[in-house]
Amino acid sequence: MEKNQLSRRNFLERSALIGAAGLAGISALNSCSKKSKSVDYAFPPLLDKAPDGVKIRAGLVGCGNRGTGAALNFLAAGNDLELVALADVFEDKVWDCHSKLEKQKVEVPKGNCFWGFDAYKKLLDVDLDLVILATPPHFRAEQFDAAIQAKKNVFMEKPATVDPVGARRIIATSKKAESMGLTVITGTQRRHQRDYLETYRQVASGAIGEITSAKAWWLQSHVWFRTREEGWSDMEYMIRNWNNFCWLCGDHILDTHVHNIDVVNWFIGKHPENAIGFGGRVRRLTGDQYDFFSIDFDYGNGVCSHSMSRQIDGCANTLGEMVMGTDGYTNCKNTIFNPDGTVKWQYGYPKNKDGKSTGIVEVSPYVQEHIDLVTAIRTNKPVVEAERTAISTLTAIMGRTAAYTGQKVTWEDMMNSTERLGPEVYEMGPVDMEFPVPLPGTQHKA
Fold it and tell me: What Gene3D superfamilies does this protein's entry cite (predicted)?
């Protein structure tokens, strides 16, 4: 973080009372922790295109690259799908998105374009059936709750939130969505990806025997960052540089590695009981986050998963998952191996004109998740994924907390934590927050 840009006060704003949403979340998490792996996973129908039906009008909250991409993925999912409103904190982001959409022949009425911290509320007043939430994840819990209160179906990006208080609120809101018959799909696209789904089906049916261990990794070069421009307030600078500040994105163990953590939770069939690990910062130029994490998640009964996440240039980079069992192991994506390493099963990808495997699923998972969303709405068979994504997000938060503090952190610690990241008031201007890089051994568990 550049010197003298922000005043120096602790940036961890704690919430003393969890409130009704938090209590509901605790109940949900307790019930989830008792679940075990089951073959009865709710597989989506995996259509190439959503069935025709009632017109669905969507609004986009969060007009950055991912939000714009998600909107186009939604429009590609079927017929009679419209994008009719845009909202973002920044006016320039709204019009940049509007321009990109126009080039794709998507016309959003200019009167339905809003900006500011309350822009999402204005968007919810438009005649909509669906809201796409793609803002920095700090804002997800509040915006998700507002969308469900407004009786809108939702597509929301991962991670679900950045702190334990937010995770419990997401779960409580998820319960509301279920009771209201709404559909909520999240951006955990591997759960909508045909090769992952079929590999899971094989594993859940016993293809590798009893699961004994797992590992997951997301190792990549540094991600984008913004240097501060003249005239930017503290708040504007942080939001424009959002994936370098923990209060906005949750650190990269949430922002990217949550995908792999979610896959491991999915295949094992539950969340871990505790975590211990470490991380550090050696190369980052802005913000307050780590460059790397190494976490051991303990799922109980001797089953553990090792998670690695790193964003440093010039290193050996790769990403994926591996789950080991008594009768073999799998890369979770497309192959199951015998214990000796020979192939037991592989997913059958479409073939090209030469009869060779393309190695690509029939439909992009980024579009497939929206096909599944529209299908659920039009067939009146609601699907709500928010709770399970919040649980995987909270798993990542547990790992982050273990690395930041150097302590062993349990699931109960997460359920009881009052940690809330970020300011209490959102407004452009100076922000009285401090951004020390976490030092293990000097912090207590939240």
Answer: Dihydrodipicolinate Reductase, domain 2 (3.30.360.10), NAD(P)-binding Rossmann-like Domain (3.40.50.720)
C-alpha distances in angstroms, 227 versus 55, 162, 185, 246?
A: 43, 23, 34, 17
Which amino acid, one-letter code, is at 214? A
pTM of the model: 0.90
Domains in the chain, please, with CATH? 13-192+368-385 (3.40.50.720), 195-361+393-421 (3.30.360.10)
Angle (nearest 5°) at CA 177 between 171 and 181: 150
- With 90 as the cut, is the pLDDT of residue 256 above it? yes
Other beta carbons less than 10 A from residue 204's beta carbon: 16
What would the two tokens of residue 244 be? 């370098």
Q: Is 376 helix (H, G, I), strand (E, B) or coil?
A: helix
Does pLDDT of 29 surpass 70?
Answer: no
Q: Which amino acid is at 152?
A: K
Structure tokens that stand for 252 in this block:
């990269």
Amino acid identity for residue 103 in this structure: K
What is the per-residue pLDDT across 121-154, written as a single tens digit (0 to 9) for each? 999 999 999 999 999 999 999 999 999 999 999 9
DSSP letter string over 204-259?
Answer: HTTTT-SEEEEEEEEEE------PPPTT--HHHHHHHTGGGSHHHH--HHHHTTHH
Cα 34 to its chain centre, rounded Å, is 23
Provide the residue type at 265 as one letter.
N
Backbone angles phi, psi at 205, to 5 degrees: -90, 5
User: Region 175-195: what's the mean pLDDT?
Assistant: 98
* 318-367 confidence digits (pLDDT tens): 999 999 999 999 999 999 999 999 999 999 999 999 999 999 999 999 99
- Report the pLDDT averaged over residues 4-15: 33
pLDDT at 32 over 50: no
How large is the average pLDDT for residues 217-239? 94
| Contact indicator for 153, 383 with CB cutoff of 8 Å | no
For 335, phi then psi, to 5°, come to -140, 140
Q: What is the pLDDT of residues 52-101, one digit of tens each?
A: 999 999 999 999 999 999 999 999 999 999 999 999 999 999 999 999 99
Find out whether 414 and 390 touch, Cβ atoms under 8 Å: no
Please say whether the beta carbons of 311 and 220 come within 8 A: yes
**Two tokens at 224?**
């984008």
Confidence check: pLDDT of 208 > 80: yes
Alpha helices, DSSP H only, in 328-441?
365-378, 386-405, 411-416
Please give the Cα distance from 13 to 246 (Å, whole number).
Answer: 12
DSSP-assigned states of every residue in 136-158: -GGGHHHHHHHHHHTT-EEEEPS
